[in-house]
Amino acid sequence: MATQREKAARLRQLHDGPRLLVLPNAWDVASAKVIAAAGAHAIATSSAGVAFALGFPDGQRISRTEMLGMVRRIAGAVEVPVSADVEAGYGPTADAAGQTARGVVEAGAVGMNLEDSLEAGELVPLELQVSRIQAARAAAAAAGVSLVINARTDAFAARGLAADARIVEAVRRANAYLGAGADCAFVPFVSDREAIGRLAREIRGPLNVLAKPGSPPLAELERLGVRRVSVGSAIALAAYGRARRSAVELLGSGTYQALEDAIPYAEMQKLLGQA
Amino acid sequence: MATQREKAARLRQLHDGPRLLVLPNAWDVASAKVIAAAGAHAIATSSAGVAFALGFPDGQRISRTEMLGMVRRIAGAVEVPVSADVEAGYGPTADAAGQTARGVVEAGAVGMNLEDSLEAGELVPLELQVSRIQAARAAAAAAGVSLVINARTDAFAARGLAADARIVEAVRRANAYLGAGADCAFVPFVSDREAIGRLAREIRGPLNVLAKPGSPPLAELERLGVRRVSVGSAIALAAYGRARRSAVELLGSGTYQALEDAIPYAEMQKLLGQA
């Protein structure tokens, strides 16, 4: 078993190329096991997916404790490094961000996302977000692990910014966050090729974008200079989509077609470590 | 909001026909919300699904507390009655079964499954299982709710019983369990039409069977006299199958086809009660 420090180093190194780091996000232990078995080099969690599974809408309605509870289960179940999506750190202050980072380390994860919007459409002042990243870095170091910090800017979802201003703001914030000690800059909500290429050129560190149906394929994102791609809650929503289709079919025609193409029970038992 | 007693009465009534009670099993809150929104009249949990999501193989490796924790989340999130799959009651004794029944009531569910095998292939002595059912019934009554007890017999998975002996044993046990106060007899692992028809005729109460791809369609099960159908972990395994397909595609061709046909994010937010 690799130590937590070794896993942090391994996750950090996966941002250095030459290949794109692809993170198919998990939301519970079974999904993490399945995604790891599919060959993922690391597991990133989806905060929305975890929230949905445990009964909350996305957007910091779940508590830090409950979110980290699922992160702990996942990190304890897979051998690959785990990066925790902990939204905006469950509190507006630098202290809250530090406390969350310490919790991420204690949960056994080796990376974390930290967002710069506490409310949809509103960006935290840049200086405050810089201090929140520094606090997360310091708290993790004090806890003994150099967490891989993926600093997210929601500039592309900010109210009152024109398209061009969004790119400028995303670059400005990404570079400030990298300067404050973040390892990677996460700019979601952009799928335009030209914009992504410009972000990759102007951001002075690894760039993470969010991919979804309609985004350029991963090979193209790699050519554009992206270093890390995640998919947020997309896999969870696809899985629950399959659950819905199964239920609708059972309750409607009373047949079982949507239940085919499942993971066999015996295989899932083995994945979960049946003796 | 219906009270817990009203929900228990409603669930019990759903066994009286004229239509088959179809229970597409859920394993977390999001799946329960999706299945309820698809029109299910009640939600049954899948103990295997819950175990997988939280990091355990199926078969009482998860604790009673953790299993009931997820049941509580689900029961608190849907308006329809919830029946909890609590395996063999997390202990071999009548006391354990009673304690589990009390926990099911406290978690807000109004029904429970109780299995008669503690180890794969081994049936609990009939008299002991009868006393376990009586203990569950009494504990629930003491807690103020007339739980709908779905007594499961694993006669069809018992080692050392020939096919014909299995039917005889399933009928003998089902009738003893119904006589002891169970509301419904659950006989899984049988999909042969003739055997199901015979079970429905010879069991003196509602019959629950487990359906899966390859089983007779629900309309036919209804004609055979089945009153309740559930699918165990099949929907969870289909959902995780979709997660696997998504991950394999992302890590392979780097495209997003398996992510289509997902539940839209905004719709899931609404299902989870976003303000």
Write the layout of secondary structure elements.
The structure is a homodimer of 275-residue chains.
Chain A: H1 4-13, E1 21-23, H2 29-37, E2 43-44, H3 47-54, H4 64-75, E3 82-85, H5 94-106, E4 111-115, H6 126-142, E5 148-152, H7 163-179, E6 184-186, H8 193-202, E7 207-210, H9 218-223, E8 228-230, H10 234-251, H11 265-271
Parallel strand pairs in A: 1-8, 2-3, 3-4, 4-5, 5-6, 6-7, 7-8
Write structural notes for this entry:
2 copies of one chain form a homodimer. Chain A is an alpha/beta fold and 275 residues long. Chain A has a single domain (4-232), classed as Alpha-Beta Barrel (TIM Barrel). Helices cover 46% and strands 11% of the residues of chain A. Chain A is built from 11 helices and 8 strands. Chain A has helices at residues 4-13, 29-37, 47-54, 64-75, 94-106, 126-142, 163-179, 193-202, 218-223, 234-251, 265-271, and strands at residues 21-23, 43-44, 82-85, 111-115, 148-152, 184-186, 207-210, 228-230. An 8-stranded parallel β-sheet of chain A has the order 1-8-7-6-5-4-3-2. In chain A, α4 packs parallel to α5 (94-106) and α5 runs parallel beside α6 (126-142). The two termini of chain A are 19 Å apart. The model of chain A has no long low-confidence stretch (mean pLDDT 97). At the A-B interface, α2, α3, α10 and α11 of A face α2, α3, α10 and α11 of B.
